[in-house]
UniProtKB/TrEMBL annotation:
This is Ubiquitin-like domain-containing CTD phosphatase 1. SUPFAM superfamilies: HAD-like (SSF56784), Ubiquitin-like (SSF54236). The lineage of its organism: Eukaryota, Metazoa, Ecdysozoa, Arthropoda, Hexapoda. It comes from Pseudolycoriella hygida. It is an enzyme of class 3 (hydrolase). Residues 138-298 form the FCP1 homology domain. Its EC number is 3.1.3.16.
Amino acid sequence: MDEVKEISIIVKWCGKEFVINDLIDSDTVAVLRHEIFKKTQVRPERQKLLNLKYKGVNALDDLKLGLLELKSNYKLMMVGSLESDIKDVESRPLDSLVVDDFDDTDEKKEIQIHNAEVYLSKVNKRIKDYEVKQLNPPCPNKKLLVLDIDYTLFDHRSVAETGLELMRPFLHEFLTSAYENYNIVIWSATGMMWIEEKMKLLGVTVNPNYKIWFYLDSRAMISVYIPEKGVVDVKPLGVIWGKYPEYSSKNTIMFDDIRRNFLMNPRSGLRIRPFRQAHFNRDTDRELFKLMKYLKKIADCEDFDQLNHRNWEKF
């Protein structure tokens, strides 16, 4: 395998400078635009990168950054407007940036991403740089359960007078039961402040019947480029496994309502049905109750790699 070269770019926009240092030479211009969006909130399609040229013409989105031979901390000039500054802000909500989730026909693509060595350097960077703050000590000899928040445990879009109205049914019963056999980690694609607030809102942080090991936020995720799909952020479990070697695909399971979040670890992910429109579905949603039973049934399994979580309801 060729040596991976890290690339650092300084984006100059609106009189400010934004450092983009989470790039490698095999990343594309599309990945660069995605990282710029995360720093500036200027959508990729609205970014005009003035001095990013290849052979005298503007660099195309599928061009690998390594071909540009950029100097360290290359200063890139950008012109672009925020959605709040243009007329169509209401017709194009922020969620429209999210790429459609993958369906069952993309399993081969999941495996290709999982085996892509190029992304392992990003995972290693997270292992080295991301600081995990443990909330509680882990219990020895337990397996690992990694949980998403939005639409998995909590409907964060519906209107309610209290957060408890948006909590997924059986949440505390589910966590209490899971804690008997699993150390529990919360991983959300949002910021740490919002994770902490949501967990307080749901009463998770103070529940005496279970303990959360630690939280991971969007900074622990990595960006990958999928042909025909674009750039997506994913949750590589290797970040946890690198920091805590006692865990691996053999004893880890992740629940998320978006399958692309576990593209790097497709065999370890279980796609949970999203919990939306809490007011209409609160009385009928039993997803966590059923998954509580599934976790119990597989708790004694010595190797989770032998399981197919897509068939969990038939197990």
